[in-house]
Amino acid sequence: MAIRDIENGKLLYHDDQATRDAVFEKVLQFFIDQQSFSGESVFQHDGVAIDSPVMLGELADNVF
């Protein structure tokens, strides 16, 4: 486990290739599911704004 000090708190996370790959696959699948493949489409697509907190929460629960 890697440790990063963030403003007087400690964040523990897995610092390995498997974790990096899992994060990349999760984010990539999110873009595919949302059919958003550019910065402009991310900003304009309501589904991204609605669904991104769920995806980020899942990353936080599974990575941190």
Please, how many domains? 1
Molecular shape: elongated
Proportion of helical residues: 55-70%
Low-confidence stretches: none
Order of helices and strands: EEHHH
How far apart the termini lie comes to 10 Å
**Helix run count:** 3
Based on secondary structure, the structural category is: alpha+beta
Characterize the biggest β-sheet: 2 strands, antiparallel
Describe the structure.
The protein is built from 3 helices and 2 strands. The protein has about 60 residues and is an alpha+beta fold. The protein has one domain (about 1-64). It has a two-stranded antiparallel sheet with strand order 1-2. Helix 1 runs antiparallel to helix 3 (about 45-64). The mean pLDDT is about 90.
Quick tags:
64 residues, 66% helix, 16% strand, elongated, two-stranded antiparallel ribbon, 2 strands, alpha+beta
Care to give the gist of this entry?
Helix content is 66%, strand content 16%.
Topology:
Elements: E1 2-6, E2 9-13, H1 17-34, H2 39-44, H3 46-63
Helix pairs in contact: 1-3
